[in-house]
Amino acid sequence: MCASFSYAAKPCIRKGDGKFLIHRNKRTSARAEVAIAVPKKKNESFYPELSVQGTGKIIHEIVQRQSQSNGLAMHDVCRKPDFNPIFLEEAYDQCKNICEEYAKTFYLGTILMTEERRKAIWAIYVWCRRTDELVDGPNAGYMSSSVLDGWDKRLEDIFEGRPYDMLDAALTDTLYKFPLDIKPFKDMIEGMRMDTWKNRYANFEELYLYCYYVAGTVGLMSVPIMGIAPESSLSAQRIYNAALYLGIGNQLTNILRDVGEDASRGRVYLPQDELAKYGLSDKDVFSRKVTDGWREFMKEQISRARFYFNQAEDGVSQLDKASRWPVWSSLMLYRMILDAIEKNDYDNLTKRAYVGRTKKLVTLPVAYTRAQQHPLLFNFNTKYV
C-alpha cells in the first residue's frame, strides 16, 4: 500500500474457511505513550483554556456519540471477524514485543492491568508508533499526501473489521472489546500531515493544536481502555478533558527536550511570538547559544508544561486501580525530564535531558504506591515532584 512500510507489504491471507493465517511482520518503531487523568477545577492562569474552544468541541462530540450508543463496543452492534485464535494471539504478542522494546517503563506498568486491557493498550500503542513512523521513520523520505490518504483509508478499514495485516488485526479485535471512537485516530493522522508542511508555529494556540493532534489524541484513545474507578463521580467530559491535558503536557515536554535535535532538521516547535518576547528568533535556536534571554524563555515554557501536568495530576487517582501505575509513572518521569532541563542550566540546544536508569527504578515503586491509594482518600492538595 505504501513504500513507507516494509512490514506492510502484504495483507493477511485468508484460508478457504475464512480464517486468517499467520503472516509474520517486521517490528516497527516510533513514539507514543498512553496516559489519562482528570483536571482540577478551572485555574485562573494566563495559559489559554483552548480545550474549551477547539478541542473541547471535539471531546464533547466524542462523549455525545458514546452516550448515544450507550458506550457499546463494536462487538455489541457488529459481528466480529472470524480470526484464527492462534493468529490473534501472535498479533498481540507482536504488539507486546514492540511496546516492551520501545517503551520499557510504560510496558512494565501495563503488566498490572487486566489481560484484556493491556492487550488493547499494546494494540493502540503500536498503531500510534506506525503512524508516527510515516513521518519520522527510516522511510520518511517516501512520504507524500497520498501515503497519508492511504493510511487514513486503511484506518477506516480497520474500524470496519477489515484489517490489512497482523498488527492491524490486533487493533480490530480491540475495537470489538472497547467503545473506541475513530476521531482521535483520524486526528493523529492529521498531525502527521501537519508535520509534512509546517515546522514553525506563530503562537501557542497553533502549537497547542499540533500537540493535540500528535499526543492529546493518544489520551482520548485510551480513556475507554484505562477505565474509571467505580467510586469516581466525575463526568465523562471532565475525564476526556483530563486525558487531553496530560497528552499536551507530555508533548510539550518532548518538544523542550528535543529542541536541539529538531533544530538540526530545520524544525522549531516553539511559539515564535514568545521567542520574540525575549529578543530571540530562529537564528538564536540554530546558533545553539544558551543566553540569559534563552533561559528566561525556557523558564516560561517549562512552567507551561508543568501547568498541564498539574491540571492532569489529581485525576490519575480516579482511574481504575489496575490502570493507575503506568499513568503515574508516565506523569512523574515526564516531570523529571523538565527537572533535568533545569539542571542542565536550560541548555536543551546542545544537550538532551534524560532521566537515568537509577532514577527511573526509584520512581516506579513510588508510582506504584500512589496507584494503590483509594480514589476517595487521595489528597488533592498534595503536589508531587
Automatic annotation (TrEMBL):
<keyword id="KW-0472">Membrane</keyword>
<keyword id="KW-0125">Carotenoid biosynthesis</keyword>
<dbReference type="Pfam" id="PF00494">
    <property type="entry name" value="SQS_PSY"/>
</dbReference>
<dbReference type="GO" id="GO:0016117">
    <property type="term" value="P:carotenoid biosynthetic process"/>
</dbReference>
<dbReference type="InterPro" id="IPR002060">
    <property type="entry name" value="Squ/phyt_synthse"/>
</dbReference>
<dbReference type="InterPro" id="IPR008949">
    <property type="entry name" value="Isoprenoid_synthase_dom_sf"/>
</dbReference>
<keyword id="KW-1133">Transmembrane helix</keyword>
<comment type="similarity">
    <text>Belongs to the phytoene/squalene synthase family.</text>
</comment>
<dbReference type="GO" id="GO:0046905">
    <property type="term" value="F:15-cis-phytoene synthase activity"/>
</dbReference>
<keyword id="KW-0812">Transmembrane</keyword>
<comment type="pathway">
    <text>Carotenoid biosynthesis; phytoene biosynthesis; all-trans-phytoene from geranylgeranyl diphosphate: step 1/1.</text>
</comment>
<dbReference type="GO" id="GO:0009536">
    <property type="term" value="C:plastid"/>
</dbReference>
<dbReference type="InterPro" id="IPR033904">
    <property type="entry name" value="Trans_IPPS_HH"/>
</dbReference>
<dbReference type="InterPro" id="IPR044843">
    <property type="entry name" value="Trans_IPPS_bact-type"/>
</dbReference>
<keyword id="KW-0808">Transferase</keyword>
<feature type="transmembrane region" description="Helical">
    <location>
        <begin position="207"/>
        <end position="229"/>
    </location>
</feature>
<keyword id="KW-0414">Isoprene biosynthesis</keyword>
<protein>
    <recommendedName>
        <fullName>15-cis-phytoene synthase</fullName>
        <ecNumber>2.5.1.32</ecNumber>
    </recommendedName>
</protein>
<dbReference type="InterPro" id="IPR019845">
    <property type="entry name" value="Squalene/phytoene_synthase_CS"/>
</dbReference>
